[in-house]
């Protein structure tokens, strides 16, 4: 197990990301003890307080456990981790994990219609949705359109007024955003359907939950099918 030194010193967030990267890549395995604070600080080239703060964050996130006697061991992050781990699981070591990518797409399609239905039922905060549709329509850049579509869904999640779904959205968005440019061609079939977004916005603002759920499923399923097909092809090529 080796750690490269961190150039910018005393940054706990970088220590956190570096240790998490080792866990996700499998360099640090479940049940394995981490080096001591002193050893980690020396290996990473940072101060012990920076390491201590990062380890506290890792502990609170359920990624490591402090055992009796002071040893800090790696947890089973798929059982104890939260959605903030998802982007790291998607690209462990820089390579796309196809199973994680597939699970993100499945979650997106499953959650989107539910959130849209809740937004319609609690549509008091949905007034800006039609403006968000106009923003999608007027942006001619494929990547920009994806960003505007994300902003639209952020408003939908806000209108749903659910902390749990909001945190899920944050985690899924964090995993999705780094791939916006690479996905621009596949996602065009979804983000170019401006009238579908407009119909969904109107269903939410008028409180038509059944129509909102149906339209959300229709809107999300097109790109989901295309992306799942692309993953199947990539999986076949890797065999």
From TrEMBL:
<dbReference type="InterPro" id="IPR008920">
    <property type="entry name" value="TF_FadR/GntR_C"/>
</dbReference>
<keyword id="KW-0804">Transcription</keyword>
<dbReference type="Pfam" id="PF07729">
    <property type="entry name" value="FCD"/>
</dbReference>
<keyword id="KW-0805">Transcription regulation</keyword>
<dbReference type="Pfam" id="PF00392">
    <property type="entry name" value="GntR"/>
</dbReference>
<keyword id="KW-0238">DNA-binding</keyword>
<dbReference type="InterPro" id="IPR036390">
    <property type="entry name" value="WH_DNA-bd_sf"/>
</dbReference>
<feature type="domain" description="HTH gntR-type">
    <location>
        <begin position="9"/>
        <end position="77"/>
    </location>
</feature>
<dbReference type="InterPro" id="IPR011711">
    <property type="entry name" value="GntR_C"/>
</dbReference>
<dbReference type="InterPro" id="IPR000524">
    <property type="entry name" value="Tscrpt_reg_HTH_GntR"/>
</dbReference>
<protein>
    <submittedName>
        <fullName>GntR family transcriptional regulator</fullName>
    </submittedName>
</protein>
<dbReference type="GO" id="GO:0003677">
    <property type="term" value="F:DNA binding"/>
</dbReference>
<dbReference type="GO" id="GO:0003700">
    <property type="term" value="F:DNA-binding transcription factor activity"/>
</dbReference>
<dbReference type="InterPro" id="IPR036388">
    <property type="entry name" value="WH-like_DNA-bd_sf"/>
</dbReference>
